[in-house]
Every structure is written in structure tokens, then in C-alpha cells.
Design a protein that fits this description.
The protein is α/β, with parallel strands linked by helices. It has 13 helices and 9 strands. The chain has a 5-stranded mixed beta sheet, sandwiched between helices. Strands 5-6 form a two-stranded antiparallel ribbon. A two-stranded antiparallel ribbon has the order 8-9. The longest helix has 20 residues, at 3-22. The structure holds zinc ion. Zinc ion (ZN) binds at residues 172, 174-175, 217-218, 220-221.
């Protein structure tokens, strides 16, 4: 991943080299060995074989030069930020921090109090209330969402975490969205109800799809995205409890060979999505959210101020889903969302992937960054009123 991983990796190498030369202690040497032999069958799985005896830090390290070299370009980073800001604006639009219900005390949510009713907190913070923008209070899921973008830059769909709605711990945004993409009769059916694209097999091209998610993916979602063949996943915040499983899957998954018309292997694509933290696309909110979450964890562990209390119930769980209800988290999403509205593009005419020559048919052209921004703004306008993709995030 980023600089911190490079540091960890380097530290590990230095430490290991010192230990090997100086003491060759039984514990250090034993720790460097795998506990079990790889075993027949598994030993034919190339990445597993390659990483079996290596330190965990190497397995977690992502070489972006292999599958996401474009991230080095500020033009590409700008493109990713457009969809990241859109996602933050969608989360802000459907924000609901009433994780433990609207009644009680949430010391970290003072600004979400209902001014009209004592000890009651607002779920929906939407200021616009008219027939198109109804209010709702019920907590349906966490403030975590995901947007899918196709290979040209068109937005396919979005979805929210709906754990509470389905009384489940597994209704996460990414896996819900991937299942929804497969359930669509044709993933190229646009939300704009545009024309069908001929000769596109149904739900067969997720290898060109980028998902943007607000929280680093768990094992379930990383697995679902790998099975679906999703190209890459850009995330806005670390989940420190997800033990970098997305990185591990990316490195361990067998790659799919690419063959030319004569059957010769000319390359390969990753067998799991490339995990891309927001820091790799210049998203300032990535660090802010991580720092805010760490501060929240510290506060909960210190035991001074709870997340929630009511009638003998005290919730001090330092869960990230609680952090994502706080005023601090709300402010960061608000700042990210505001970026979408006031965004001054530096690379308006940049297209990625580069098409040379550019197709005559405008429908087949990759969107420029300016067109991506217009797409994102139009999609928000649609969602702002309709809001019903997948299962609704409002009732
Ligand atoms: Zn998940």
C-alpha cells in the first residue's frame, strides 16, 4: 500500500537481517518457517506457493505498478476523487446516526439533536423537506455505501449497508451492490434508461467495473468482489479490524491469463480487485476519517464518555459503525461532499483508459474527467429525489 506499508516492510527486513546474523535464535528462525507444509494440490497454486514462506508484510504489500500504474498520474487520481466525493455526498444525503434509536443520549452527536424534542436525535439530517425529499428516522443500516462505475466512467448503481434493515451483520454495501449488479438483466442498462448496448453479455464484464466504497472491505465483500471479477476497489477509510484482507486476496488469488488470437499468453489480470486506499488518489478525507476513528476508539476505551446511554444502558463499543454516527464523522463527509459541488478540475479533457484512436461513436468513448464530474452530479440529482436503488435506504 502506501508509505506506512513500505516502512513496515523495510523495518521487518532490517529486523530479520539483524536477527539472522547476530543470534540465529531458535524462536526467530522458527517464526520464519511455515507451520505446516503446503501440501499436494495447494503447492500447484502459484501465488500461494510463492508467498508461503514469506513474511506477512510481503503478502500485504500491493505493487501498484502491476495493475494500477495509472495511479501515478494526477489525472487519474482526479478522476477517482470525483466518484469518491460523489459517494461522500450520497452518504451525507442518507445520513442517519440513530444506531441505538432516536431516544437517549449520544454525547458525540450533540449537533444531531432534535431542537424540537428533548433527548431525541434526528435520523435524517436532510434540510430539504418537501414531497420529493421526505424525512425518515428509522436506522436501516450503517453510514457506509458503495458506488459502481463501468469501464467508460458511467455510473451503474449504488447501494448502502443495510444490516439493521435485514436484521443481519452481513448486508454490507459492496456485497449487496455486486449481487445487485448481477441481478440486473444487463449491467449496461443505464440508470438513465438509455438504449441497450448490443452484444454485451449479461453481467459478464465486471472486470471493467470499479467500486468506490466508504470503508475498506471485509473478508466477505473482498471474497464476493473477487468471485465477481471486479477490477478494483477504491476505499475512503481503513477498517483496522479487516486485517488487510483485500490486499491479501489480491496477492494470493490466481491471475487469469490473457491470450492473443493464436492462444499465446500475452499477459494476465488480477484474480481479485486491486485494493486502492483513498490516500493513493489524493483524497484528504482518508486521513481525516482514520484519525477521527482512532480518536473515537481512544475515547471509548478511556471510558469517560460513552457513545450512547439510556435507562441503564451504556454503549462504549469502539465500533467503527458507531464512529460513523458521530458529529466528527459527519463533518468529514460534509467536507468531502462539498468538494463535488465546487470542484475545479485540473485535467478536464483527460480520459482513462486511453482510447487511441477515439471511437467515432460517442457512446463508446471513455468519459473525460469533466464528463465524469457531470455524470456524478447528474447521478446525485437523480438519487436525491428517487433514492431507491437496491432496497431503499429510506422508508
Ligand atoms: Zn463487507
Amino acid at each position: 500500500m502506501s508509505d506506512s506499508d513500505k516502512l513496515n516492510r523495510r523495518d521487518f527486513i532490517v529486523t530479520t537481517a539483524g536477527a539472522t546474523g547476530a543470534l540465529a535464535g531458535a524462536t526467530s528462525m522458527a517464526a520464519a518457517q511455515p507451520a505446516d507444509p503446503l501440501g499436494p494440490g495447494f503447492d500447484q497454486q502459484d501465488p500461494l506457493q510463492r508467498y508461503w514462506s514469506k513474511p506477512l508484510g510481503e503478502l500485504v504489500h500491493v505493487d501498484y505498478g502491476q495493475d494500477a500504474r495509472e495511479l501515478e498520474r494526477p489525472e487519474s487520481q482526479e478522476r477517482h476523487r470525483i466518484y469518491s466525493y460523489l459517494l461522500m455526498k450520497l452518504i451525507l444525503r442518507f445520513w442517519n446516526g440513530n444506531k441505538n434509536g432516536p431516544i437517549g443520549s449520544y454525547p458525540q452527536r450533540a449537533r444531531q439533536l432534535d431542537p424540537a424534542i428533548p433527548n431525541r436525535y434526528r435520523g435524517d439530517l436532510n434540510e430539504r423537506t418537501d414531497r420529493s425529499h421526505i424525512s425518515w428516522d428509522r436506522y436501516l443500516g450503517h453510514n457506509i455505501a458503495c458506488v459502481a462505475v463501468d469501464g467508460l466512467g458511467h455510473i451503474i448503481d449504488f447501494d448502502f449497508n443495510h444490516n439493521a434493515f435485514f436484521r443481519s451483520t452481513a448486508e454490507h454495501a459492496e456485497s449487496r451492490l455486486v449481487r445487485r449488479l448481477f441481478s440486473l438483466t444487463d449491467i449496461f442498462d443505464s440508470w438513465k434508461t438509455g438504449p441497450h448496448v448490443d452484444a454485451k453479455p449479461h453481467a459478464a464484464l465486471l472486470s471493467e467495473v470499479t467500486l468506490y466504497t466508504s470503508l475498506e472491505s471485509c473478508a466477505q465483500c473482498s471474497g464476493v468482489m473477487s468471485l465477481a471479477g471486479v477490477k478494483q476497489i477504491v476505499y475512503m477509510q481503513n477498517d483496522f479490524t479487516a486485517y488487510k484482507i483485500g490486499n491479501i486476496m489480491y496477492n494470493l488469488a490466481n491471475r487469469t491469463p490473457i491470450k492473443d488470437k493464436d492462444g499465446n499468453v500475452i499477459g494476465s489480470v488480477a484474480g481479485a480487485p486491486v485494493p486502492i486506499p483513498g490516500s493513493k488518489v489524493g483524497l484528504a478525507e482518508f486521513d481525516r476519517l482514520n484519525q477521527g476513528n482512532l480518536a473515537f476508539i481512544k475515547k471509548m476505551n478511556q471510558g469517560s464518555e460513552p457513545f450512547f446511554s439510556s435507562a441503564g444502558i451504556t454503549d462504549r463499543d469502539p465500533s467503527i459503525t458507531s464512529f460513523l454516527c458521530t458529529d466528527d464523522a459527519y463533518d468529514i463527509f460534509k467536507a468531502g461532499a462539498a468538494n463535488l459541488d465546487g470542484l475545479q478540475l485540473q485535467f478536464e479533457s483527460y480520459r482513462f483508459p486511453v482510447q487511441d484512436p477515439l471511437p467515432d461513436d460517442p457512446a463508446k468513448r471513455v468519459l473525460t474527467n469533466k464528463e465524469c464530474l457531470i455524470e456524478a452530479q447528474k447521478f446525485f440529482e437523480y438519487v436525491d429525489v428517487e433514492g431507491y436503488r437496491g432496497s431503499p435506504h429510506k422508508l
